[in-house]
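Handout, section B. The chain below has 162 residues.
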Amino acid sequence: MAVLDAEIRRHDWANMRCGCLRSAAHLPGDLLRSLEGPPIVPGGTSWADGHAYVQSNLMQPALATASMIMAALAGGPPLAHRRDLIMQLAALTGGEQDDVADACRDVVRGGSWLLYEEIASGRDMDAATYAFWMLEEMEEEAERVSDFRAAFRENLPEDLDS
């Protein structure tokens, strides 16, 4: 995952204060270890929860974490982990600190095709739903989001099929 490694090196993790009140230097390793282990079960606690965000509050490493997640998605993570990565990305783009959440959305905007691919793939309805919600927040994507909802309605929950 060369893309992920390069993105990790771009950020000064050691000088960011984590949600756990330590340095955020542990976050890249936490992500990498999570990708090597079993996927997080629905409702389980993720490697980013309590660190990049605490509940809906975004912490200092939120933007760097969003960039790292997008790089992980671009690098082709194990399929079983895509759902968790996309859910963590949704938590970062939907946080309460509007300026930080907006910056995280800008990172996602730069790789929006990864989210469209998730919707089209039919791999996981939860991942597709979170991808859809993030794309739906991008006004400039309204027409494409509508077209993808119509084209791939079987990959999304019925309540999104309108």
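Note. DSSP finds eight helices and two strands in the chain. Compare this with the example in section A.
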